[in-house]
Amino acid sequence: MSSSSLTLFFFFFFASTFLYTSTNSFNITNILNQNNEFSTFNNLLTQTNLASAINSRQTITVLALSNDAVSHFSDQSAEDNKKVLSLLIILDYYDIKKLRSLNKKSVILTTLFQASGQAKGEQGFVNATVMDNGDVMFGSAVPGSILDSKLIDSVATHPYNISVLHIDSSIRFMNPDGSFDVGSSSKPLPPQPPNDDDYEFDEPPSPPSSTTKPVVADATAATAKPPSAATAKPPSAAKANSTSGVSAISTPNFASAFVISSFWLFMTVW
Ligand SMILES: *[C@@H]1O[C@H](CO)[C@@H](O)[C@H](O)[C@H]1NC(C)=O
Ligand SMILES: *[C@@H]1O[C@H](CO)[C@@H](O)[C@H](O)[C@H]1NC(C)=O
Ligand SMILES: *[C@@H]1O[C@H](CO)[C@@H](O)[C@H](O)[C@H]1NC(C)=O
Ligand SMILES: *[C@@H]1O[C@H](CO)[C@@H](O)[C@H](O)[C@H]1NC(C)=O
């Protein structure tokens, strides 16, 4: 008896670890197939391989666009389409009820684009806000972005695994420095995306509690704090004496001061 339960344990362990894609009970293609209004969007998800990326997740929200709202996608490259569409795939479960009851009326959501490792700054995050009139609006989390994608209704929900929500227009894909921020040379962005993340932890001082959790919880999102501490170090190390002993001591001191002060700032702002 115990050996069969052990066998069962290992079966489910391996099934959930390695085979969860095939044991998933939802299929975004089938969900969207039930409504002709989303046929173009559905085809785009399949063409860009995002449909299988969605199906491989256990907790996901898809912001779906009706056929008229995706007409401009045919003018864009497949690569651009994939970027824009992956910004509509939220790595958490949000149905209408959960959005309407946001305790701070606003939340920053992690998207599949963030998980792709290509996102710079806050490009891979989406801001969802409940407006005073009750409308739920979505926009890029890049500072200065306009929230102009409006939630229309729910297409399908399989709590708490997948929620498909209909929005009226695509979320604008913003440059990391905000598209209206013309002459900002203060923040040179290196071409490697993963190390840009110090920006997102320093810039928004007041994200609600639920914003940082998805980021940390999602192992694929390249948003660990250590890189930001690491990128902050070189200037101080360069200033220190050339004696390696001195810089070896001062660098950890700086790093721990950085971590402690970040933590303090985080707790204060919370
Ligand atoms: C989802 O459904 C589509 C259409 O029915 C099918 O082609 C595809 O193989 C399914 N995907 C999975 C992962 O089952
Ligand atoms: C639904 O989500 C739960 C919790 O994340 C997970 O344990 C379960 O396997 C998921 N079910 C499916 C069908 O993906
Ligand atoms: C979302 O955007 C609105 C409008 O720009 C802003 O007021 C709000 O603070 C943002 N929410 C978060 C959590 O940053
Ligand atoms: C090296 O350390 C000495 C003593 O702490 C200091 O006076 C000097 O300016 C340092 N040199 C550099 C290049 O930082």
TrEMBL record:
Location of region: Disordered: 181-245
Composition bias type Low complexity, residue spans: 209-240
GO cellular component: plasma membrane; side of membrane
InterPro entries per UniProt: FAS1_dom_sf (IPR036378), FAS1_domain (IPR000782), Plant_FLA (IPR033254)
PANTHER family associated with the record: FASCICLIN-LIKE ARABINOGALACTAN PROTEIN, FASCICLIN-LIKE ARABINOGALACTAN PROTEIN 14
Role according to the record: May be a cell surface adhesion protein.
Protein name: FAS1 domain-containing protein
Taxonomic lineage from the root: Eukaryota, Viridiplantae, Streptophyta, Embryophyta, Tracheophyta
